[in-house]
Amino acid sequence: MKKIIAFSLWLFVTILQAQSVDTPERIILNLTINPSSSIAVTWHTKESYPQSFVEFAEATNWVEFKEHTVKTPTQMNELNYKNNISYTYSTVLNDLKPNTLYVYRVGYDSVMSEWNQFRTASEGNQPFRFVYFGDPQNGIREDLSRVFRKAILTAPDASFWLFAGDLTDLPDESMWEEWFDATGFIHRIVPSIMAIGNHDLYFEMVNGKKKKTDKYPLWQSLFTLPENGPQGLEESVYYVDYQGVRFIVLNTNYRLEDQAEWLENVLSNNPNKWTIVTYHHPVYSTGEGRDNRDIRETFMPIFDKFNVDLVLQGHDHTYARTYKIYQGKISVDESKGTVYITSVSGPKQYSANPMYKDLIAKLGTFTQLFQVIDIQGDRLIYNSYTVTGELYDHFELTK
């Protein structure tokens, strides 16, 4: 009996100690402006640990890499959300080798995460694939988990994931907890880039009514995104060059004219073969009662001028793929025009609005989707899949 009591006490104390350890969580990799030589790492703890660091090395087939690790300090930020204080940490690992597999872990003192792996981009125009998601937004833990898991099984070699906004329904701590629950280990090994949606913005109560602001403190705390966009729009407007493709991320919530001027400059100095733009609100709305005329009139002439290849959107909780569009019409010249996609990964879906049906090659709804896009030299290969793994849509571009 004494042995049973002693064991029970030991087990109880062990469980309490395990629960009290503030293990790093919400670990995520983000692409930087130089993805062949750097990567951004961000994570979260409940208490403050100013001496936190990232430890990394080139990956090996055994654990001998531990003899050659480098430790990089981080920037710690206090996160005060509704008077609940927690802490985020971020750093960029620089001077990495192109097309090289690295291992890394994060933590403080002797409290460390597990070892994870990532691969840097190649320097040249090499083939790669990435995964694109329309709005997750609702039912994240319950209904999105299987979408993310099917995506990683379908494209385990994807170089990164791209999200077109409204990652959560509200910029709320509980929803971000769901988000990192649903994505699990994936964010620790697959880098991401994301556009900010209207639901990702911070809301304030003014005279008893919810009012959208231009703030996104949780977004900036939980992610470390490029800051090469217009002043005041850092981490929501930026571009990344990845193996022959210029990815441009816009913020369609406000300041469109400022972004248009920046966009002209970014596209006029673009050495890449392919150009892909992502943002949240579609130029051709397919959700009931919606039409984003200001976005269409601001950005589409620039897309036409510089022959943007593909635009990836969200917001409307439907699926739509246009034909190649040039100057508001289906292009009769294969060398001109842009394909506009709207997709949805979450369970919240609307009836499809047929207002622009003459421009749309594929229109659908009430289907949770993810897209795998391959860049293979002169070919862009697009496949949209249902959460059950069925091919939903396909097309190719050549240039």
Describe the structure.
The protein has 399 residues and is of the alpha+beta class. 21% of the residues lie in helices and 34% in strands. The chain has a seven-stranded mixed β-sheet with strand order 15-16-17-18-22-19-23, with no helix packed on it. The protein has a six-stranded mixed β-sheet with strand order 12-11-10-24-25-26, with helices on one face. The longest helix is centred in the first third of the chain and has 19 residues. The radius of gyration is 22 Å and the shape is globular.
**Proportion in β-strands:** 25-35%
How does the overall form come out from the CA principal axes? Answer: globular
Q: Give the low-pLDDT segments.
A: 11-18
Radius of gyration (CA) equals 22 Å
| CATH topology value of the largest domain | Purple Acid Phosphatase, chain A, domain 2
> Share of helix among residues?
10-25%
**CATH architectural group of the largest domain:** 4-Layer Sandwich
Report the CATH superfamily of the largest domain.
Metallo-dependent phosphatases
Determine the mean pLDDT.
92
Query: Biggest β-sheet: count, sense, barrel?
Result: 7 strands, mixed
Q: Report how far the terminal alpha carbons are from each other.
A: 78 Å
Number of helices: 7
Q: Count the domains.
A: 2
Largest sheet, order of strands side by side?
15-16-17-18-22-19-23
What's the CATH class label of the largest domain? Alpha Beta
What's the count of strands? Answer: 26
Kindly name the structural category: alpha+beta
